[in-house]
Write the structure tokens for this entry.
Amino acid sequence: METSIRLDKWLFFCRFFKSRSLAANVVESGGVRLNGLPVAKPAHAVKPGDRVSFPAGPYLRTVEVVALGTRRGPALEAQGLYRDLGKERAPEE
């Protein structure tokens, strides 16, 4: 059983992004933080217990990794992969 998964793959499985390549682009642009630190590589490993923050419209959404997943399933299945920790206004650039 896997103990970690690629960040872009996990974001895609959770249905936060419509495609894995879109998730990878957001990671590469510096928009995603893992445990409070910026991540620039889509292949960065995530594991249960990690906190992931990413842009969601005008907000910065933070979730905790609960499970890794094996596919991009229906929304109810995807919701079991994370615990929502809330949203905050994204800082103005």
